[in-house]
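Format notes (please read before filing issues)

Several people have asked whether sequences and structure tokens are stored in separate files. They are not. Every record keeps both together, in the order shown below: the sequence lines, then the token lines. Line labels are part of the format and must not be stripped during preprocessing.
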Amino acid sequence: MLARTADNLFWLARQMERADFTARMIEATLRLEYLPRSGVEDPAIEWEGTLNAVGAYEAYIVERERIDEASAIDFLTFDRGNPSSICNCLENARANGRAVRTALTVETWTAINDAWLELKRFEARRRPGKDLDREALTRFLDYVKKASLDFDGSCYRTMLRNDAYWFNRLGVFVERADNTARLLDVKYHLLLPSNEAVGGSLDYFQWVAILRAVSAATAYHWVYRDRVKPWLIADLLILKPAMPRSLIACYVGIDSSLDSLAREDGRSGLAQRKARTTLAALERAGMDDIFQSGLHEFITDFIEDNSRLADTISEQYLFV
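Then the structure lines:
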């Protein structure tokens, strides 16, 4: 496969996954805003956490003076100046898909194109300078999540298991691992107000919102059959292979995809070795050790390793 084609497939999947995650984070943050407050906390703290979780905080601060709900939502949804806004993700995903139209099935292309057409309809209904009302915003976020599910399902159910499929899956798993890691890190360092005790009622509802953001609330209760506890949530989202968005599940997928690509072209490389090293480290890890050494440090190292792996994949396969 041409490197340019592989690159488009890889980034098509990453953009669709990123749009989905951003929509989920906005939805989770809106839920948190309905929680009772003592009146001391800065209400912008949740939106600061969301901007950090999606990797858009620095770009936001450069473009806008202060953080508030309306401004943060606009920046994350329709702002063309934000490279990771939902509208830019869907625009870029369609451009990537159009460039490799012949490598996609009819169903997969239809899912991508329909998502773009619906985006245009939402944009047309927005009045210039006006934000979506809460009902319209909810419909928009639901549409983004459905578009991602339609894309993911069409890939899984209709694409031939060849190099096009594996580059697509690589994009999904690399992006998903990064998103889950950032979400966990933000919870520990930004979402909990400094005057709120860990384990308090606000902490509990924040964790529930985080679980819902990654569609893991039901899974949590199935696995642990216990009240919500931060260390168990961390265990679920880091070390449980059965949880699709966990770090280890993402790396099982990355390792499998890279091995499949190696079988396709008859050679293995640094990307395969890096993925196996990270997967082996996750398989050996235990939550006691992670918390003892520091969850923030563990997650920071993971994000950096995941970024280096993405660079290695690009160098090995995607550079034209």
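For reference, the curators noted about this record: The radius of gyration is 20 Å. Residues 10 and 167 are 5 Å apart (CA to CA).
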